[in-house]
Amino acid sequence: MTSDYQRGRTALGQRLRELRIQAGLSGKQLAAQLGWPASKVSKLEHGRQAPTVDDLRALTDAVAPEAVTELVARLRALETHYASWRRQLAAGTRARQEAWQLTESSAQLVRNFESACIPGLLQTPDYARWMFERTTSLHRSPQDIEEGVRARIQRQQLLYEPGRSFHFLVWEAALRVLICPSAVMAAQLDRLAGVVGLDTVRLGIVPLGVPLPVVPSHGFWIYDDALVMVETIGAELRLVGVAEIDPYVTVWTALEAAAEYGAGAHRVLARSRAALVL
Q1: CATH 3.30.870 domain locations along the chain
Q2: CA-to-CA distance for 70 and 236, rounded, in angstroms?
Q3: Which of 231, 205, 228, 227 is closest to 217 using CA atoms?
Q4: Which of 2.40.50.100, 1.10.260.40, 3.30.70.20, 2.60.40.420 would CATH assign to domain 3-80?
Q5: Is domain 89-274 classified as CATH 3.30.870?
């Protein structure tokens, strides 16, 4: 969670408290009126919990109906930066993949570093299926796995559009993480080897053991130097400020310099494939 996000959530909470006090209600009275647990109003007002749109509509109906547009706009601004996976996946994996495609299709240069898995735009259907099974189980989201796989493969059509540029960096450790059967991983590594040399795609592998001036702590996407997206275990971050984007560009540049390309990338892929027990 970014400090900007937390500050925004705290400011939203303070506004909720202001409206409640103006309506002459205590926190307990408001919670009782809305049928909420007694602690919920306090958590919202102190920025310890983010409200949903339904929360805001219910609350403003009780204290200040005219404020609903303002508060929903504030919440949407927060969600531009931070959105929990539980909320993101509420409509299923297909909807999330289609949202990703809209973001990708608006960029000419897409850069993606992955430290623990294969980039989504380079995944085989079988690998993607295992990824979605893991994700939907963790977040208890709708099990529309086959629809999600089809939507992910549809996203990959962007790789073949002239005028676009995709640059992927994959830490060698991601080639060894078996979230799927070995045979599926073998086919996935073959797929990666096949995209080396594709006109619109540049694939680099950051080998294990190579000295790094940065810590590759998590994966991230950079879109035209205007947006960074980060997937954490619990949420997705969307960073748009220069001060937030610059560190990712710096890390990207360091990882790019350490990566192997072409024949070197093929050697790392072959090494990882040979280590699989089939």
Answers
A1: 89-274
A2: 24
A3: 231
A4: 1.10.260.40
A5: yes
- pTM assigned to the model: 0.75
What pLDDT, on a 0 to 100 scale, did the predictor assign at position 5?
67
Which residues touch 253 (CB under 8 Å, ≥6 apart)?
Answer: none
Q: State the pairing for strand pair 82-84/235-239.
A: antiparallel
List every span in the chain annotated with CATH 1.10.260.40.
Answer: 3-80
Q: Are the CB atoms for 221 and 79 separated by under 8 Å?
A: no
Sequence letter at residue 269? L
Q: How far apart are the first and last CA of the chain?
A: 40
- Strand order across the beta sheet in which 227-231 lies: 82-84, 235-239, 227-231, 220-223, 109-114, 165-171, 201-206
**Exposure class string for 154-184: b at 16+ Cβ within 10 A, else e:** ebbebbeeeebebbbbbbbbbbeeeebeeeb
Phi, psi of 147, rounded to the nearest 5 degrees = -65, -40
Q: What is the mean pLDDT of residues 82-88?
A: 78
Q: Which residues contact 217 (CB under 8 A, 6 or more apart)?
A: 115
Closest CA to 189 of 101, 127, 263: 127
> With 0-12 CB in 10 A as exposed, 13-18 as middle and 19+ as buried, what is 230?
middle
Closest CA to 272 of 208, 210, 224, 195: 208
**Closest to 13 in 3D by CA, of 54, 69, 62, 55:** 55
The amino acid at residue 136 is T
* Helix ranges (DSSP H) in the chain: 3-22, 27-34, 38-45, 53-63, 68-81, 85-88, 93-105, 125-139, 145-155, 182-195, 242-258, 263-274
pLDDT, mean of residues 216-236: 92
Inform me whether the pLDDT recorded for 260 exceeds 80.
Answer: yes
